[in-house]
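INFO  loader      accepted 1 record
INFO  loader      residues=92
INFO  predictor   begin
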Amino acid sequence: MKYEVHWVRAWGMCMGEPYEDEHHGTFATLEEAQQSVKRWWQENKYQPRYIRQMSDEKGRLWWDYGLHSSFYMFVEVKDNEKGNKQVQGLAS
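INFO  predictor   done
INFO  writer      dumping tokens
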């Protein structure tokens, strides 16, 4: 199982439907995916005031880091029997 990192802007604030979605990579574990965000923040001298973590009904994990309309979304990716990826909670 792998995890994709998405930086999104969402309608309806946190956990709304994304209207802007930038895929920032796919990682072997959730921890690696989350660390990639923290590493980017460190490299760019950014320090969020807080990180609020929530999950939605589609199984996506969200990080609200204080920007009110921008969030990080971590999405579980499963490989099916044929080796094709299936992304949980995102329309293909």
